[in-house]
Amino acid sequence: MATGHADPQRRARILAATLDHIAEEGVAGVSHRKIATRAGVPLGSMTYHFSGIDELLREAFTGFADHFVTVFEEHLGHATTAEEACEAVTDLVHTLSEGPRRDLVLTQELYTLAARRPEYRKLTQSWMRRSRQRLEEHFDPETARQLDALIEGLTLHRALDPAPHDRALTREAIRRITTPERQRVR
């Protein structure tokens, strides 16, 4: 392993170690010493690369949010019709809910920080805005906002339910939001 400035991957290893640590122990357990040990870097590297824990957390969570926007882009980028976009959203819900438990935990840790601290709220708002922009390539803004919330809710429910719902229920929920006749008579 290279040392000092000759180690161009050090910063990236620190950020990855931060997310790994949060996924295992939560944000409350983050310290320079713990992250340096996990990343296999000298403790001094932490203050060389980051002004403090807040900068470290913001950058780690920004990278995490960027990853999720990329997942949205990968799923929605190939859709050319409304039907394909709905199927892409269905695939997205199932991919996210069946994905690594680590991602679910990191998402909830970020949401908890955002609920408490405005600087993290801005980060999550940016993430939501970027996700909705991907959805707005296929749906009107109101529908995109509803789908974004649906994606998060269904993903969480599927990930935590011991008997998660199937694709048919996901497809039906998406159809109800995206079909113009969705206002049903009561």
From TrEMBL:
Keywords: DNA-binding, Transcription, Transcription regulation. Residues 8-68 form the HTH tetR-type domain. It holds the Pfam family TetR_C_31. Transmembrane segments: none annotated. Residues 31-50 bind DNA. It comes from the Bacteria. This is TetR family transcriptional regulator. It comes from Streptomyces luteolus.
